[in-house]
Write a structure and sequence with these properties.
With 431 residues, the chain is α/β, with parallel strands linked by helices. It contains 13 helices and 14 strands. It has 2 domains: 336 residues, Vaccinia Virus protein VP39 (Rossmann fold); 65 residues, OB fold (Dihydrolipoamide Acetyltransferase, E2P) (Beta Barrel).
Length: 431
């Protein structure tokens, strides 16, 4: 995945100033310089960040299928500082992840085609503090897809505390970015095996799910019927669904199982409900990562962290210079992939995406895993310029078995208006 430089740099300076103003207005901090006070951050924020990180970033062998989201907003000592810790530490990271997915769509040429006077309707499921909704706004500002100038987000969340804060944050974020977007909040819990929206609910152009499936103990197979139903009844033709989930093995594989269940659903497979997987797979091939029980698939992007977050990482032992995540983009459409993503025009079916880092075997040869129309392969490539995770290889000629493939010829998809978020050209020098 290649992220535009202006998006990478968007959180470098002004974001912290705006965030501080918002926190003061909502009485989450008492002093303007609170985020630069080491004593305050050490005693009032860092301990909560460590606890929340242990809860979210579960390790293999201790991962559970769901998280009780309400408890970390309302229980424990000093819930005000606990909410502040979540907002400061996790919200910007999740915002940037969603914005990066939006930027990848932009890079591949996706564009909305709506009348300029038409309001754009979006919905974030399990919105929390509206990280996903704000990520869409940030993505549109720095890597536009052509959204109409006005729009609204419906924010659905089971925690009233998080929803109240998230609605205020979304409206503030839209205002400081000069975007005419409003928000409506809906305090409710979604039972994923039951109807997600009432029959009277309108249709939306965009669904966003940011760390939403992660909060449910239901299997992907158990919820796919209701997902297909809500897309059929409440997603506009040509509408998008953007899903971002943790990069942990269990949660990533759950998303891959969701994709598999979607493509095998009778109403989707027959075209009755025309849902097409766009990213990261660029096709409906069988998932290579699901073939082995210990494998999974995720992306990783690099950014300029806000200054306070760099200091907070130092206090907690975390490192958010790079952000891993799993994602899926689905469109309700009857168009072909090349019509939707015109940057792939002229690219043969022999296209692959790197799904691992690139490891140097010598000065000229690198090894990595690729995934394409014929599944997942371990590949070697003799070229001084090494591609990296998320890159797309076009018109690729190769030979060998999936266990070890030699790439004879390929072209890495480039964008003159973007830089590689994982390369030296965009790695923040001060990081």
């Amino acid at each position: 995945m290649r992220v535009p430089v202006n998006l990478i740099n968007a959180f470098r300076e002004g974001f912290e100033t705006n965030l501080t103003e918002f926190l003061l207005e909502n009485r989450l901090i008492d002093e303007k310089d609170a985020l630069t006070q080491k004593r305050f951050m050490t005693r009032s924020v860092a301990p909560h960040v460590k606890m929340l990180s242990e809860m979210f970033n579960r390790t293999d062998g201790s991962q559970t299928d769901a998280i009780d989201t309400e408890s970390y907003w309302t229980e424990g000592s000093n819930p005000k500082n606990r909410r502040l810790a979540y907002f400061l530490s996790f919200m910007p990271c999740n915002l940037f992840r969603v914005a990066s997915v939006w930027a990848e769509l932009s890079r591949l040429g996706f564009r909305w085609s709506f009348p300029a006077t038409q309001d754009f309707r979006a919905l974030e499921w399990g919105a929390g503090v509206a990280s996903g909704a704000c990520g869409i706004l940030a993505g549109e500002k720095y890597a536009p897809l052509g959204l109409p100038p006005q729009g609204s987000f419906a924010l659905i969340e089971q925690s009233k505390t998080a929803l109240t804060l998230g609605t205020k944050w979304f409206e503030y974020f839209a205002q400081v970015n000069d975007m005419s977007w409003g928000a409506r909040s809906f305090h409710r819990k979604i039972e994923l095996t039951q109807t997600w929206l009432p029959p009277t609910a309108p249709k939306f152009h965009l669904f966003v799910m940011s760390y939403f499936l992660n909060e449910s103990s239901n299997s992907s197979e158990a919820i796919i019927d209701q997902f297909v139903n809500v897309c059929e009844k409440h997603l506009e033709e040509e509408g998008l669904t953007v899903i971002v989930e943790p990069a942990l093995k269990l949660q990533s594989r759950k998303l891959l199982a969701f994709r598999k269940a979607l493509l095998e659903h009778p109403r989707v497979a027959s075209g009755e409900v025309p849902l097409k997987v766009l990213l990261p797979c660029m096709g409906h091939q069988a998932c290579g990562a699901l073939a082995k029980p210990d494998d999974w698939c995720h992306e990783e992007v690099t950014w300029w962290r806000p200054g306070y977050l760099r200091e907070l990482d130092a206090l907690t032992g975390l490192d958010r210079k790079s952000l891993p995540f799993s994602y899926l983009v689905i469109q309700k459409t009857k168009r072909t992939l090349l019509e939707i993503l015109p940057r792939l025009e002229g690219v043969s079916e022999k296209r692959y995406r790197l799904v691992s880092p690139s490891h140097s075997l010598s000065k000229k040869t690198s090894e990595f895993f690729i995934c394409g129309q014929d599944g997942k392969r371990r590949a070697r490539y003799a070229n001084p310029v090494q591609p990296d995770r998320g890159d797309i290889l076009m018109n690729t000629d190769l030979h060998g078995e999936p266990a070890l493939t030699q790439i004879d010829r390929t072209t890495v998809l480039q964008d003159p208006e973007a830089e590689d978020a994982n390369g030296d050209t965009t790695q923040p020098a001060g990081e």
